[in-house]
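Researcher: Next entry in the queue.
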Amino acid sequence: MMKITAFSVILFLFLAILSGCAGKGEDISAETSADTSAYEEVITSTNAVAEGVETVPDGLVIPEDMVPVYGDSLKDGEYDVKVDSSSSMFTVTDCRLTVMDGKITARMTMGGTGYLYVFMGRGENASEDMFIPFEENPNGTHSFTVPVEGLDMGIDCAAFSKKKKKWYDRTLLFRSDSLPMEAFADGTAVTPESLGLADGEYTVAVSLEGGSGRAKISSPARLTVQDGKAMAEIVWGSSNYDCMTVDGVKYSPVNTEGNSAFIIPVAAFDHKLPVSANTTAMSTPHEIEYTLFFDSETIEQ
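Model: Structure for this entry, 301 residues:
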């Protein structure tokens, strides 16, 4: 009787060990499945594209007179660039542009972590071999490194939602007016030298964009050319500006009465030049970003 009991115990222990091994195998399989599930969901959802009420209105406006800037118009190097998006749900908070041998790539850092992949095109055409996965940064933010056809043009970019398991179509605009002038290849920028302007006094039509759209400046502006460098007098429509910043250099008003006036450098004509101006019209001073456009065809001596 004791032998039978001992044998039973041994058999029970043997079966328990086998069962434990099987359980571990199931756990490993489950973990592997979890690790690959997100990717499999993308593969099985390549034709799932958000439509109708699932999307937000396209908020991107590309000016009709905007001329595309391609890689061969830029010098090799790395530059910070501003990116406009058609959707507030796909916000690029920081972007680093790389130009090499006429080709452009951009590393876009996102304002959220809700997308697993992007595809440079429309979601309905998303191809598995062209999915671009996110890269996680040390601070937890997500970045995507993408090819860029050109600046100052609408570029299709579909983003795959981690939560909805669908592609959301976006349009991106990489803005050339946010690049420093040294980023442009020789001969690309219109300068006093390329225009053959002799030292002297001129006038030039200038337009302003940015801010709330209510700020005004006087046009034409007075232009002074000396030693091949151009300086313009910018007169604002109010006396509430106490500082302007151009290419990281701060400029103070040249007058003490009347509307605020500044003399600033003009790095190039026919190009939107980024500037900022500090206004005291609000309860606390605010620095507001603008662009200035100096039209070379309107220059008169």
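Model: The longest helix spans residues 2-43.
Researcher: Noted, moving on.
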